Amino acid sequence: LNAIPGITCIQPHAAFYVFPEITATGLDGAELADRLLNEAGVCVLAGTAFGQVGRNHIRISYANSRANLTEALARIRGIVEPLVAARS
Q1: Which CATH entry fits the domain spanning 17-87: 3.30.1330.10, 3.40.630.30, 3.30.70.60, 3.90.1150.10?
Q2: What is the pLDDT of residues 66-78, one digit of tens each?
Q3: What would the pLDDT profile of 28-37 be if each residue is shown by its tens digit?
């Protein structure tokens, strides 16, 4: 995830999900979650499901196959990179 411009993610310890920060996209977690689902077919959870502190985050479960995760990351990159580039 950290290889995708605009996403910052701390490596999880003993978990099967990550909580990347997405402020650089210009969207909040709910807006990005909607775009990822509707435009890329990737389901993530808006960080606000965990309180307002998660407003600029999304939650991604990685309890899936490596092939599916690789595809999901490529799709996430396809949505996030243009958003970040447009803000530069």
Answers
A1: 3.90.1150.10
A2: 999 999 999 999 9
A3: 999 999 999 9
